[in-house]
Structure formats: structure tokens, C-alpha cells
Amino acid sequence: MSSSPQDKAKTPEAFLDLKVKAPDTNSVGFAAIKSSVNQVSKYMNAADAFKLSAKINQKGGFDCPGCAWPDPDDERSSLGEYCENGIKAIAEEAQNKTIGAAFFAKHSVDELASWTDFEIGKSGRLAEPMFLAEGASHYQPIPWEDAFAKVGNHLNALNSPDEAVFYTSGRTTNEAAFLYQLFVREFGTSNLPDCSNMCHEASGIALSETLGIGKGSVTLDDLYKAEVVMVIGQNPGTNHPRMLTALEKCKKNGGKIIAINPVPEAGLIKFTNPQNPIKMLTGGTQIADVFVPISINGDVAFIKALLLKLLEKEEELGNVFDKSFIEEHTHGFETFISDLKTYNFEECLKASGVSKVIFDAVFDLILNNNKIICCWAMGLTQHQNAVDNIRELVNLLLLKGSIGKEGAGACPVRGHSNVQGDRTVGIWEAAPQAFLDKIEAKYGFKPTPKHGYSVIDAIKAMYEKKAKVFFGLGGNFISAVPDTYYSAQALANCNLTVHVSTKLNRSHLVTGKEALILPCLGRTEKDYQKSGVQIQSVENSMGVVSSTKGVLEPCSDKLLSEVAVVCGVAHATLKERSKINWLDYKDDYNLVRADIAEVVEGFDDYNNRVKQPAGFYLPNGARIRKFKTKTGKAQFSVNKLPTWKLKPGELMMMTIRSHDQFNTTIYGLNDRYRGIFNERRVVFMNPEDMRERGLKNEQIVNLKSVFNGVTRKVNRYKVVQYNIPKNCCATYFPEANPLVPLDSFAHTAKTPASKSIVVTVEVD
Ligand SMILES: Nc1nc2c(c(=O)[nH]1)N[C@H]1C(S)=C(S)[C@@H](COP(=O)(O)OP(=O)(O)OC[C@H]3O[C@@H](n4cnc5c(=O)[nH]c(N)nc54)[C@H](O)[C@@H]3O)O[C@H]1N2
Ligand SMILES: Nc1nc2c(c(=O)[nH]1)N[C@H]1C(S)=C(S)[C@@H](COP(=O)(O)OP(=O)(O)OC[C@H]3O[C@@H](n4cnc5c(=O)[nH]c(N)nc54)[C@H](O)[C@@H]3O)O[C@H]1N2
Ligand SMILES: [Mo]
């Protein structure tokens, strides 16, 4: 009998050989360079490695699939605009090893599911389309045309288009993403959940409401010119290493950095620029001027404490708030201030877990500077009150007039390399009507105005059998989503699950009754089509759209581009009833860009402008103080302190990334900066919390979360004593995802609260 979906979704509980060392306080440097070179040479030959490194993030080269951090507009480092973790991402994709019919004939789905995610990822690049028949134990090869027909037949057999779910992960290019959402809308649904739902959705919602655009307002140049940069809930040393170069530049210009994080992440404390040989010898730059060891989810309380003190000083001195900005450009100031006055400074500071000495150091910098940038990532967005976290930060920026001027603004640091672009071109389960009207005007069909499923709603719909087909354009749904075992059942309830992927992952193993793996080209590979080698385009975290073009030969001749896959599926599904000539697009992506230029705001003359070496900026109202909110002004907001209370014995747990992973892809088993080697099943704990529970270093424990009366459990973790605030602990994502309750999510944004999981720790 085959394993249950839950068994297949589970990551093996076996331990490796944990070695714990003192955490680093310095990121990058020689160790990083050595690590990246090892990484590349493990997977590919020297000539390919050289070709790649010369083109990463260069004008006319390819966009690094590692993260969404922008490239400098002007000069780019001749040593290559890349970082250790970008190299790992590329090495992972651009490898010579491939898997196809023989591999899948040898290994059953059950067997593959018993491997760790690290082992699954090491298998190699997917080389040909594969099909898992109902009840079968092994995948078998299937021709592309048959695979398309199978998807089409399943979709056409549904009672309603709303019974299908179309997920997107954020690596998909603008061209593929635009066509995909167009197909989904012509098919008749808005069920377009994406990784953004689990990532920066709260930022989009909070910023749209307060600044009138769901994106950040700063450019790289602003970061260089800021007087103060607050880096909140973000670990750039691992997840956006090139950001550290920008912070270093800011410091050189006299800027100060405040890092707000429960743990002293290495990159936040000190950074050695790998592209500056002199610094590498002399030891690097101190990054954070003030490090704030905040309690998990203490951010609204901390920012409120700052706001309260600013108000006090304003009342005393009269020159602390930017009154002309507030008057001319904002709305809701009085309501905001009268609500603020109902809070007590000491209570807020206590709730934040931060000492008065550290608070004062931060307050001084905020009080005495007016060009402030707030940068943040998952440490703010993956909480129940995530939207409040971000709105409260915006309140601070508005009081100081730090929006829409040089060296100031909001900077949500996006994750996947094109997650922002995907949303811009229409991957959105709740797209605005104006966008849908443009589609109707251009293509002559009426997209449904009904909002579709976000990730959480999609999981519930599949669990309840209201959705029966799951299609994933990239990503690793089962490992990325919360509540792993419930979600595994949701996928298993489907008639068909389909994944367009570059690498094997757990989502190919936790399947519906039937399943398809459709292998596609990666960023690094040349995309040959009828009209020649194609370029594609992406949008970075700061709203710059630029081209990306692969440099290596495809790893298999049976791969299709994502664009070709979408066109193939659309053609096979919609056939004569489509108003669109789907197959034309794949021959020449200029046709896709010409359509985007007509439908999506800001893309005029796309085909020419995308060829500009550094790309082009999309319009951004907040950047020029044109706020497209309901009132036409930037909006102050009223946010409450979170009300949760831990019961005796409980801890607040955050799930974080190690240094050797990209989301669910595990490159290696070390988390070098945090001093963890050769193990991922660790729980970082405060020494006092360990003492109270009688726990010793490396003791084996089980973790339990109870939410709304339901108990969730993961077994066999090793305790590691760590510099983390009392009552807080941390584990790695995705192994700890079975503990994240599906119903614990950010209000209005529905981002799973995967940084606020209430747990107890029990000896095994
Ligand atoms: N190498 C690499 N690069 C990546 C990724 C990757 O996995 N690997 N993933 C990409 C993606 S999709 C994303 S979204 C980004 C993620 O980038 P990050 O958001 O940096 O990633 P996380 O590991 O989730 O780290 C969250 C940080 O927030 C802190 N934190 C947690 N809870 C709180 C809190 O309540 N308050 C505060 N102030 N801090 C808190 C944690 O200690 C941690 O430092 O990175 C992108 N880039
Ligand atoms: N507990 C917890 N859960 C989390 C998070 C957390 O911090 N804690 N973070 C959340 C966040 S921020 C995010 S963004 C999601 C990530 O969720 P996803 O985006 O779904 O996951 P990834 O791990 O990035 O997806 C990796 C897979 O994408 C495929 N892939 C890679 N490159 C390409 C490509 O170019 N094209 C195609 N078609 N496929 C490709 C490969 O097959 C690879 O296995 O996870 C979320 N889940
Ligand atoms: Mo993300």
C-alpha cells in the first residue's frame, strides 16, 4: 500500500551530525567567496561557470534568480553583481545533472518522498515531462502534446472554472505571468493564488491603503543618501546580501543603521564586501549603529513607543513633526494623534521587550534626522497583525515627512526575483476592476469580477473538494504552505495536480489522483523560439523593469519555456472558444510585451524600453507625493497593540531561513552565520527558557502548537542555546510548517502567521 499524503509531506525526522559553533558577527568575506566557488564547481564545468559569472545581473545579462534586490542603475561591479547565495541559486539551477524516465522508473513516489528535501533537491534538473497515473507507484514519461491535452481535458470536465486553482511562484517572468493570468481569466476564474500571499501581501495591503501604491517608494540612490535606515524583521546577510553593499555605501555617506531583530543576524552587525579586497583584509564595516533585540511581534509596541516620545518632544519643542508635509499631503492626523494619546509609553516599551538604553539610542537618531528609510521583510509580514506592523511604520515616516523625498521612504524588500513583477502584470486573485476592464477592451472577453482564492482559501477549497485541479507555475506548494498535513490532504483530494518546474520537489510527490511534472527552462538558459533567442523581463524590488536573457544551452532538449507551456495549456484547453491566438505568442515574445504595453499601466513602448541597458522605472506616485489613496493623500492609520498572551510554558516561535536554503530548496545543511553545521532540526532557545525547562544543549525535544483547540506537533528537534529574547524561539522553514495553523494569518492580508507560532517544548 502506498504512503498517505501526510507521510509523503513529512520531512524525515532522522538527525544528521549537528556541530554548533559560536555565531558569526561578520558576514560575507573570504569564507563566502570560498563557499560560492565550491558551490559552482560542484555542479558544472569551469567554462559554463565563467560564462555565467560574467553575465549575472549585468546589463544585457540575466537576472539572478536569487532575490529581488535591485542592480545599480549606473556602474556595475566588474567583479560581478552577485553574492554567495545568488551563486548558490544559479549553481542549483544551472547544473549538468538531469533526471528523466530512467530516474523515475528506478525510484517510486513513495521512495522519493522518504528522502530529505536536501536529497530531493540534489537529484538534478527535470529533463522531460512526466505523468503519474491514478494508483500508479511511479511517474512515467509523457509527450508534451498529451500532457497539454490531459490538463485541458481535466479543466474542461470541471463543473465550473472556479474548481481550478492556478498558483504562481515569483520567479516567473513578466511575459509568462501575463499570459498565464490571461489564460486563467479567459478560462473563467480569478483563482490566482501566489507566493506573495505568503510573503509581502501585508505590505501590499498596508501600503496601498496608506500610500496609494502596494510597493516601496525608494530607489537604490535613496538608500545611499538616507540619514537613517531602519532594517526591521529582515536578515539581509543571508537573504539579500547585495543590500549590504548599499547599506555600506549609506554609512560611508554618513548614514546610520538601526537593526531591529530578535536575533543579532551576522549581516546586520558587520559586513565585509566581497568586491572590496582591501576591506576583506582589514575586517569589514560595522553595519548596525544600534541593534535592537526586540521580542517576536514586539514591533508595533516599539514603534508606538517611538511615536509617543516624538509626540512628547513635538509638544515640547514644536519642530519635531514635518508639519507642512502633514498638512499638505496627509489625511487622518488628528484621529491618529488622539488614538496615540491613549497609550502609555512604559507599557509599550515593556511589550516590545527592548531596554530603555537601546530605545533612547534609536529615538535620538529618529528625532534628529529627517531622511529616514524603513526596510523590512518577513519579520513584519508573517504575523496576525502584519498589516498593522507596516501601517505603524508608515505613521512614523509620515510624521517625519520621510516619504517622497530624496533619501527617505518605505522599502519592503521583496523575496522572489520577480514576485513584484508578477503582481504588476496581473497575477492577483483580487485584481482591480480597472485592470479587468482593460483586458476586456483588448481581448473581447469579460473576465469574472469575482475575487478568487488566495493561498489559504485555495487550500481550504481543495480540502473541501470545491477545487479539483491544482496547477502550479513554479514553486513548491506543499512545502511552502502552512499546516502541512491538512494541506497534503487538500492536494490529495484533487483529481489532477500539475507542476511546471525546474527541479524535483516535494510537491511532485504529494499529488492528486493524477499528476504531471512539466519541466521548463530556467533563467540561465537560452530560450530558442521560431523568431530567435528570446529575452524576457522582470521587475525588481524598487520597480525597475529590465530584460533577462539566458546564456547556457538548455540542460535537456525536451524542456519548454514557461511561455510555451502556458500557450500550450491555453490552446489545448480553450481551443476554438478562445479569442486569442495562443500559439503565436510563444514564437515571438515581442507580441506578449506589445500586449502588456496596452493593458498594464506604465509599460508604454515596452519592447523598446526593455532593451535599455539598465531597464526602466515604473511610475510610482508615492515617490513624487502623488498618493492614489481614497482621499488623494497619504493616510495616517490607527493600529492596536497585539493582545496575545503566552500561557505558562509557552513560547513564541518564528520560522526562519538558514543560510543554505532558498525557501524550500535546501542547498546545504549549514547555517554558517548562526554557527549551525550539518543539521536543520534545531530549535534556537534563550538560555533562561532552557533552564526553566531543565533543557540542555542538543537535548532532543518535540514541539507542539495548540490553536483553536487543535494540536499540531513536530518531533525530534535539538535544542540550541542562542542569543534570542526570553519567551521566543526559532526553527527553520519548511520543516516546522506542520506547526503553522492554517487559520492563523494576517488580518485582511491572509499571510500565514509563520513568525508568530505559539508552541510548547517537550522532552522527547
Ligand atoms: N539566500 C536566500 N535568499 C532569499 C530567500 C532564501 O530563502 N534564501 N528567500 C527569498 C524570499 S521569497 C524572501 S520573502 C526573502 C525573505 O527574507 P527575510 O525576511 O530576511 O527572511 P527570513 O529568514 O524569513 O527572516 C526574517 C527575519 O526577521 C526576523 N524576525 C522574525 N520575527 C520578527 C519580529 O517579530 N520582529 C522583527 N523585528 N524581526 C523578526 C528574523 O529573526 C529574521 O532575521 O528572502 C529572499 N531571498
Ligand atoms: N513557515 C514558513 N513558511 C513560509 C515562509 C516562512 O518564512 N516560514 N516563507 C514564505 C515565503 S516568503 C514564500 S515566497 C514561499 C515560497 O514558496 P514557493 O515560491 O512556492 O517556493 P520555492 O521554494 O521558492 O519554490 C522552489 C521550486 O520552484 C521551482 N523553480 C525554481 N526556479 C524556477 C523557474 O524558473 N521556473 C519554474 N517554473 N519553476 C522554478 C523549482 O522546481 C523549485 O523546487 O514560502 C512561504 N512559506
Ligand atoms: Mo517570499
From TrEMBL:
Q: Which InterPro entries is this protein grouped with?
A: Asp_de-COase-like_dom_sf, MopB_CT_YdeP, MoPterin_dinucl-bd_dom, Mopterin_OxRdtase, Mopterin_OxRdtse_a_bac, Prok_molybdopt-oxidoreductase, YdeP_MopB
Where in the numbering of this chain does the Molybdopterin dinucleotide-binding domain appear?
651-756
Gene3D superfamilies of this UniProt entry? 2.40.40.20, 3.40.50.740, Dimethylsulfoxide Reductase, domain 2 (3.40.228.10)
Is Transmembrane helix tagged as a keyword? no
Sorted alphabetically, the keyword list is: 4Fe-4S, Iron, Iron-sulfur, Metal-binding, Molybdenum, Oxidoreductase
Q: Does the keyword Oxidoreductase apply?
A: yes
Q: Which segments constitute the Molybdopterin oxidoreductase domain? A: 125-500
Top-level taxon of origin:
Bacteria
Kindly give the SUPFAM superfamilies that the UniProt entry links to this protein: ADC-like (SSF50692), Formate dehydrogenase/DMSO reductase, domains 1-3 (SSF53706)
A Pfam family (short name) is: Molybdopterin
**Known cofactor(s):** Mo-bis(molybdopterin guanine dinucleotide); [4Fe-4S] cluster
Instruction: Indicate the family of this protein.
Output: Belongs to the prokaryotic molybdopterin-containing oxidoreductase family.
Name of the protein in question: FdhF/YdeP family oxidoreductase
**Source species of the chain:** Tamlana crocina
